[in-house]
Amino acid sequence: MRVAIIGLDIGSGSAKASAFTPEGQHLAHGAVSYGPKQPMQGVAEYDPSEICKAAVGALAKISGQLGDYVVASIAIDAMMSGAVAIDSAGHALTPYTTTLDTRFGPWLDAYVSVHEQKLRHTAGSMQATLAPKIAWLKHCRPDLVGKIAKYVLAGSMVGGYLAGLDAEGHYVDPSYLWTTGLSNGRYGKWSHELLDAAELTESVLPRVVPCTQIIGTLTREIAHQTGLSPGIPIAAGCGDQTAGYLGAGIDRPGVAADSAGTYSVFSVALSEFQPCDNPRMPDIGLAPQPGLYHYQHIVIGGGLTRQWLEELLLASSPDRAGALAKLEQAASLLPVGANDLSFIPYFGGTAEPPDASLRGQLCGLTWTHGAPHLYRALLESIALDHARSLACFPQHIVINQVVGYGGGVRSHLWNTIKCDVFGVPYVCLGDYPITELGTALIGAQAVNIIEDAASAARGLRSVDTILQPNQERHAQYAALLKNGG
To answer: d(Cα 40, Cα 259) in Å, to the nearest integer?
Structure first.
């Protein structure tokens, strides 16, 4: 019998499913796109049923590609900063919103300003997205308060749909908890101290389970819709960033992750939980491996910002791919600093410290600047923002290598800029579905096909290219950072 394992990735723009052998051979891939409704500034609402149906559609796309392979497990990773309210039967009562929807900003500001020290030292993050979202929902939808049984995150929203769970069956794994403002980050559980601060009880939150917990099995109805067999075990899985770290092998000191997706995230792994009082303190999240933490710097919607600029500059081009290649080439010929043009990429506010009111800017524009300058300035801004954050990481962190993955690594120029900014080799993993692999390996561990997902991932990572830094450009970027550029 030939066995397949499935990783289902619920991202901010699509549901992606990939099937692998336990040895890492990529057997099948399927994706279904969706997006938030954004009728006005500050609003970004996802339809929960659209996301769940996209997950089913992605699974259906791969089922026909598997031939005689038997699916042993499905595991789910998902975007981490959102919430949806459900009733006792597990049905959604509200849209699903992430930090792209900034209407909860006043409640976020109020919660963080009052409980800043508790959040830093107990939760390990001021990314308190769940607690203020609940307060905001109670304020704007008081008619629903008596109907709401739980507030759940995207992974459970989809897992509950696939397994037919009621509210009491819903769950969250510890890797999501740092985004909630309600957790004990050191131990990966709900914090009674922060629950009291938010005037909430644990009863309105999902149960905390290990990422390898089997939360249910594929229902007959969903199996019929996907072409898969009913009864396939579904593992809880983890947050999408965490799954990427696992698949990319970010599990030891000295190796940093550049997750170039919708959110641009820079992360390193450490074995201690060590919060600090700096306002730009990185978020500290639990890894699937016991005793490991990921220190993360986030540019909210960094990948979306790059896509926005590409659309703005290239919308009228009949050959978008060719036009983008020419734009990259022209931008690559410009000097470091894009001829004194700087870009502030905070279109959706900042994550560290959390401030939903900040916005993007272009600084230093003159008549000599053109499209390549704007493009290079944007790419440099995110790389420099990541590098600037290192000053707030634990001081003994030494980075010897950056590992890049996600849609953004298709830009050779962006990879080169990041390599030069950090001054260390940049290992590009290409288009291999690293996140889905990490998730699928969690499912394989859950059903005892493999002993340890992290160990298996280390042996399966496939490298596309390795870039070496240009020391002259590195020195120029270091000067920009020193001078506040």
So the answer is: 29
280 C-beta neighbours (distance < 10 Å), count: 15
Can you give the pTM of this predicted structure? 0.91
Cα angle for residues 410, 413, 417 (degrees, 5° grid):
120
CA torsion, points 110, 115, 117, 120, in degrees to nearest 10? -80
Spell out the SS3 assignment of 151-162: EECHHHHHHHHH
Report pLDDT digits (tens) over 435-475: 999 999 999 999 999 999 999 998 888 889 999 999 999 99
Region of residue 136 (left: phi > 0; alpha: psi -120 to 50; beta: else): alpha
C-beta of residue 198 within 8 angstroms of C-beta of residue 131: yes
* 235 beta partners: 75, 214
How far apart CA 393 and CA 272 sit, in angstroms, is 12
CB 138 within 8 A of CB 200: no
Q: In whole angstroms, what is the distance from residue 136 CA to residue 141 CA? A: 8
By C-alpha distance, which of 54, 146, 143 is closest to 96?
54
Spell out the long-range contacts of 111-114 with Cβ–Cβ below 8 A and sequence spacing 24 or more: 111/135, 111/181, 111/197, 111/198, 112/181, 112/353, 112/354, 114/197
Query: In Å, what is the CA distance from 106 to each residue of 70, 73, 141, 440?
Result: 50, 42, 16, 38
3-state secondary structure 199-229: CCCHHHCCEECCCCCEEEECCHHHHHHHCCC
DSSP 293-310: EEEEEEETTHHHHHHHHH
Burial label for 443, CB within 10 Å (0-12, 13-18, 19+), is buried
